[in-house]
Design brief:
Length: 420
């Protein structure tokens, strides 16, 4: 009798143990999930695809897609700041991997450490070590990366270049030679948009002029921003700017890409979200309808940035947000999102057959090129520097004074404690 009771208890306990995971798996998530990003309108399709996966897995959750338009997050970051400081964080928000998050909300102790999720989901091995390092500190891992974008890309329409009798320039010297030829035909040599896209162009020109070693030396504090090398980079930037459109300040990055697509401009230097725009929104075929090259003098260098999402402390729907982060970090999520977005997967086990010709070439370059961090998109420097750099850029756009701008940059670097 006693023995059969013990046996019964053991069997019961075993059944209960088996039942536990099933019960927790069956737990259905409900309520809201507010996702905050700047992927609105034309930038939205890839995010929508991720939301589609999430809804399939969590049909009872109401997803609030809170977007604030404005390339590179120029407007979204300001709104996020108000909400974070006001104690009203969204459940999860977009942020660039690197200093943009670490130097702000991590430093202010407003983020949850996601190490537990990385371990549970096997992400410590799924993502490259260097990337995990970039999104982490000695106190934790702070966001889930969804992609790898390339900043230093020059876009053009092959048929137009043929018509105008020019080729994609391999160096800025080449560009400066062909630009007047294009102007004579009434073509804007290089399409530019609002302020942040000038920062974007600057980082490609500066990388070209300084080289990768000196670019990195800037961020480690070993090379001063007012050194002759950097002044030279500003001078080259000034020459390049002479061949951009006068209405740049009033255009979005998509409008600058449109100038190239419509044949009003020959080239545009933009991150490869422009490939996402041309393929996903404009239905253009890479290699045929549009062409690309590393921005002049940067072949063999891959200036990278990554979008990621974090979990703020006090997220109103924490469980729903964790389920969202799981979708973002998954292979399925990544290989659904990136082909639409114009980026490559941040995971090591990506299924390249799902990616178009441009993205396959980007993946190849990422594997063999020298990888350096983007300033304009949060990987290289903190927000103090970034915010101040927008003003420094305004000053240069008005004065074209390379020396004064370089001095102002060094003052800013001191204030932002770059390399300290
Ligand atoms: C970048 C972001 C990209 C894209 C781009 C234009 O900062 O990383 O994903 O959104 O801005 O808005």
């Amino acid at each position: 009798m006693k023995q059969s009771l013990i046996k019964f208890c053991l069997v019961f306990a075993a059944v209960m143990l088996l039942a536990v995971p099933q019960v927790s798996q069956a737990k259905e998530l409900k309520g809201d999930l507010e996702i905050f990003s700047w992927w609105a309108g034309d930038e939205g399709p890839a995010l929508q695809a991720l939301i589609g996966i999430y809804k399939g897995q969590n049909p009872k959750v109401k997803v609030i897609d809170a977007t604030v338009t404005g390339g590179s997050g120029v407007n979204a970051k300001a709104v996020l700041k108000t909400r974070m400081l006001g104690g009203e964080p969204p459940d999860s928000f977009q942020v660039h991997a690197g200093q943009e998050l670490i130097g702000t909300w991590v430093k202010a102790d407003r983020m949850e450490d996601l190490t537990f999720l990385f371990k549970e989901q096997g992400w410590m091995d799924a993502f490259p070590k260097g990337l995990v390092k970039l999104i982490g500190t000695d106190k934790g891992i702070w966001s889930v990366p969804v992609n790898i974008h390339r900043s230093n890309v020059m876009w053009y329409i092959p048929a137009n270049l043929k018509k105008w009798g020019v080729e994609a320039p391999k160096s800025w010297n080449d560009f400066l030679k062909i630009a007047p030829k294009l102007q004579k035909q009434g073509i804007v040599p290089l399409a530019l948009a609002q302020n942040w896209t000038a920062n974007h162009l600057w980082e490609s020109v500066a990388l070209a002029s300084l080289g990768a070693d000196n670019w990195e030396a800037l961020w480690s504090g070993k090379l001063k921003f007012n050194s002759p090398e950097v002044i030279k980079a500003w001078e080259l930037f000034g020459k390049v700017l002479q061949y951009t459109n006068k209405d740049a300040a009033s255009l979005s990055w998509q409008q600058a890409t449109d100038m190239v697509i419509d044949g009003r401009a020959a080239f545009n230097i933009m991150g490869d979200w422009a490939a996402g725009y041309m393929v996903t929104t404009k239905k253009m075929a890479p290699g045929k309808d549009f062409g690309w090259a590393a921005s002049p003098d940067t072949a063999g260098e891959f200036m990278f940035l990554a979008d990621s999402f974090g979990l703020p402390k006090g997220a109103p729907h924490r469980d729903n947000a964790i389920a969202w982060l799981k979708v973002l970090g998954s292979k399925e999520g990544s290989d659904t999102f990136n082909p639409l977005k114009g980026s490559i997967s941040a995971r090591k086990d990506t299924d390249l057959s799902k990616y178009n010709g441009y993205l396959q070439s980007a993946a190849k370059d990422f594997g063999k090129d020298r990888v350096v961090a983007s300033l304009a998109h949060g990987a290289a420097a903190n927000e103090t520097f970034m915010g101040g750099f927008a003003q420094v850029m305004e000053m240069f756009l008005k004065t074209k004074n390379a020396k004064a701008t370089a001095m102002a940059c060094q003052q800013l670097a001191d204030k932002a404690k770059i390399g300290k």
